[in-house]
Amino acid sequence: xxxxxxxxxxxxxxxxxxxxxxxxxxxxxxxxxxxxxxxxxxxxxxxxxxxxxxxxxxxxxxxxxxxxxxxxxxxxxxxxxxxxxxxxxxxxxxxxxxxxxxxxxxxxxxxxxxxxxxxxxxxxxxxxxxxxxxxxxxxxxxxxxxxxxxxxxxxxxxxxxxxxxxxxxxxxxxxxxxxxxxxxxxxxxxxxxxxxxxxxxxxxxxxxxxxxxxxxxxxxxxxxxxxxxxxxxxxxxxxxxxxxxxxxxxxxxxxxxxxxxxx
Length: 263
Prior knowledge:
Blueprint: E1 2-10, E2 15-23, E3 28-32, H1 39-47, E4 54-59, E5 62-63, H2 69-75, E6 76-79, H3 90-95, H4 111-123, H5 139-152, E7 157-161, H6 169-185, E8 189-193, H7 197-203, E9 206-211, E10 214-219, H8 221-224, H9 227-234, E11 238-242, E12 249-253, H10 256-262
Parallel strand pairs: 3-8, 3-9, 6-7, 7-8
Antiparallel strand pairs: 1-2, 1-4, 4-5, 9-10, 11-12
Helix pairs in contact: 4-5
């Protein structure tokens, strides 16, 4: 589905350097790493918001440099950290996800578009406030509406930048369960940036660990989330155990006070 080859890109004071990895169709990939390691920059490069200075990004074998906006938007949907608070209703906002699928002379949504929007509002628990303006609902509710809009786009590749950051634990698990269900049932390919290492471990097939603009490690959660790797990259003391149900790695932070006592 996606191949990144020797990618270098970024800003005046920060660059991703020589990033290379592949994402197979139907994979669920987690992008993790400390603040400022380049996670959001990587997603922006994939969507074309940042142009590669070196290397290339291939989507279904085609260089994204040669893809128009509509073609790219029909394949890739993004849930960003910037949550809009606009005057439009939640339903109107979610229907924006259908625009890439409009026919050449289409200006208004069809009955099918409305049905698809209703379907994903129901799945994301936003249907109950579909007629409320985006500016009048909470940050967490807006986050759910952004996810609903992305799903209404019916992409083949879904990019999520901290999709659970404004949500309580109930909606965190509900959204990630939904993403995982669509990933499995529809072979939806997913890449998501997560700060919570335990959520990344629980839901992702593989993890890409970034540090200082480079790939530090790629592998399964068990291969990446060892206490040695975490302490090296995050510079904090942790204990890594296994989740007793899923048997995935579970990261426990050790406070400085308790570490001193144990030492």
